[in-house]
Amino acid sequence: MARPLIAAINLAALRHNYQLALGQSATGTAVAVVKADAYGHGAIPVARTLSDLAPAFGVACIEEAEQLRTAGIQQPILLLEGFFEAEEIPQLLQQQYQPVLHSQWQIDQLTSHLQQHPVKPGSLNVWLKVDTGMHRLGLAPEAVTAAWQTLRQLPAIGEMTLVTHFARADETNCPVTEQQITRFQALQQQLQCPASLANSAATLHWQAAQQGWLRPGIMLYGASPLVTGHPLGEQLQPVMTLESRLISVRDLPAGEAVGYGGRFVTSQATRIGVIACGYGDGYPRQARDGTPILVNGRRCSLAGRVSMDMMTVDLGPGSSDQPGDPVELWGNNLSVNEVADWCDTISYTLLTGLLPRVRRIYSGE
């Protein structure tokens, strides 16, 4: 029998979440972001599931785009970090990937290549990124107009979209986001161009940012980037449920240390279960004692350090749990956001950090 740890992927929930995002779009357009192997869910099955709904997909790099093309995905693919070196440009043009141009060196390299190697007029759509306040990628607002005009003069360039990214959109009352929107809107009004502002948090909350192309990412997979209780965030459905089973159960008296370093010490006579899952699967080693785990649907607590292949859970005194009983580590009945809080991290790292040896089992196709 195979090791019992699986990631159960509900593709019907994925479609629900994409349609929820699409419902917030003022223009009915949303790029489905499937970078980092669709946040650990499997980029190819995710893209295939959304192929009749999503008009475009977003990835981080050309290698991720190639995986989708090789699998038969024909929709436009947005390269969210553009290209990393000029050698990628011929491949980008051949496959008609759409780069996000965020730096002057990219514009210079692309301009030089297109001048030396002309292609079909209007065949390359590009996105120009403006730094409205996050200060990570993007041209300064005062440099955008000149860059826009440079690109617009190239015969190969087709549609151009102005894009930005929010630093604090998950903070629902943050004035920084309002300031970023205002800066962006001033440029867009000047250029009279298509726009893309909204990540998942803005898609769920910031109406002024919901014009043009939305870029839902984490929300597609059922994890809300917003605080618990947000009306739209609560409508998201978990796509991944990380499931395993107990492989051992033992009784311990009070005062016994459990696991590496003896961090957890039983405060009373209790039963300790061992679960087939560890940091070698992507479960965070920094998880604290008390991190919630569902055993037979009952809320229990992590007891001791997570090992490479196993973890221990306090089942409580008098429990009747036995080896082979089901365990949920996050998913349908236990929020990945709650687990992330206990691990001093965010849901993004838990989902994207799940390693390949965890079998993905798909349903709801």
From TrEMBL:
SMART domains: Ala_racemase_C. Gene3D superfamilies: Alanine racemase, Lyase, Ornithine Decarboxylase, Chain A, domain 1. Its cofactor is pyridoxal 5'-phosphate. It holds the Pfam family Ala_racemase_C. GO terms for biological process: D-alanine biosynthetic process. The keyword Isomerase applies. It catalyses: L-alanine = D-alanine. Pathway: Amino-acid biosynthesis; D-alanine biosynthesis; D-alanine from L-alanine: step 1/1. Its EC number is 5.1.1.1. InterPro entries: Ala_racemase, Ala_racemase/Decarboxylase_C, Ala_racemase_C, Ala_racemase_N, Ala_racemase_pyridoxalP-BS, PLP-binding_barrel. The active site is at 35 (proton acceptor), 260 (proton acceptor). One of its GO terms (molecular function) is pyridoxal phosphate binding. The modification N6-(pyridoxal phosphate)lysine is found at residue 35. PROSITE patterns: ALANINE_RACEMASE (PS00395). Substrate binds at residues 136, 308. Keywords: Isomerase, Pyridoxal phosphate. GO terms for cellular component: cytosol. Residues 239-363 form the Alanine racemase C-terminal domain. It is an enzyme of class 5 (isomerase). The keyword Isomerase applies. Belongs to the alanine racemase family. Catalyzes the interconversion of L-alanine and D-alanine. May also act on other amino acids. This is Alanine racemase. It comes from Marinospirillum alkaliphilum DSM 21637.
